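Duplicate of #3305? Posting structure anyway:
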């Protein structure tokens, strides 16, 4: 059988894992023996599992991206981009009108006729500007609206899944950082002959297990989104 890869090589291969590279040839003789401990061997096995999970996540992400493109294929990307750009242009105008409408309500309550007339004119001018910007993309806008209507139900189903996935991603990032810190503490303690390395390594093992569990949930959530889109 091939020798079990050292944590340094496994960690280096975790592109997104960011656990740092442990160069065996650069460590003191005492640090070389750390990899021979049962705890260290367990950590290596868990890192191998984590590496395999990373590949599954990448594959599922690619599948989801392809599925999204398939679902949206009825409306060409250039059409979607054109509509998006125009909608971004008119967004501040609509926000301005929203604020002006609130002022108009106050002016009416105060029975300020001059202010009412002024605000109505400003709102109407903005309405005309919005219509002028939307007129050239009437056909494209209709296509995008039809697509949005088609996706309304799937998006409703996906919303809680996507929110949970976002929370998991944030938690995974936090646990990842904790794992990196704990692994570094383990190496430093062992190098210095501090028996605290054992406790740190045990905690690092707990963290990689927690991190893997969270990312397994993310993988499941990505798969659920894919199923909804089918």
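Output from current build:
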């Amino acid at each position: 059988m091939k020798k079990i890869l050292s944590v340094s090589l496994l960690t280096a291969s975790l592109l997104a894992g960011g656990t740092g590279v442990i160069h065996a040839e650069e460590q003191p003789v005492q640090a070389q023996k750390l990899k021979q401990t049962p705890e260290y061997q367990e950590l290596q096995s868990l890192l191998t599992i984590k590496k395999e999970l990373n590949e599954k996540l990448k594959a599922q992400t690619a599948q989801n991206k392809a599925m999204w493109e398939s679902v949206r294929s009825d409306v060409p990307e250039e059409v979607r981009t054109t509509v998006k750009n125009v909608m971004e242009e008119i967004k501040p105008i609509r926000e301005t009108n929203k604020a002006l409408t609130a002022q108009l309500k106050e002016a009416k309550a105060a029975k300020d006729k001059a202010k009412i007339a002024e605000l109505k004119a400003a709102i109407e001018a903005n309405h005309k500007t919005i219509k002028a910007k939307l007129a050239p993309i009437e056909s494209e806008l209709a296509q995008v609206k039809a697509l949005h209507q088609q996706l309304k139900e799937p998006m409703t189903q996906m919303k809680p899944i996507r929110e949970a996935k976002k929370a998991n991603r944030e938690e995974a990032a936090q646990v990842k950082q904790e794992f990196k810190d704990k692994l570094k503490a383990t190496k430093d303690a062992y190098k210095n002959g501090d028996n605290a390395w054992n406790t740190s390594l045990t905690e690092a093992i707990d963290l990689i297990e927690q991190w893997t569990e969270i990312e397994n949930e993310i993988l499941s959530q990505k798969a659920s989104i894919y199923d909804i889109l089918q």
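Confirmed duplicate; merging threads. Residues 1-31 have pLDDT under 50 and may be disordered. The radius of gyration is 28 Å.
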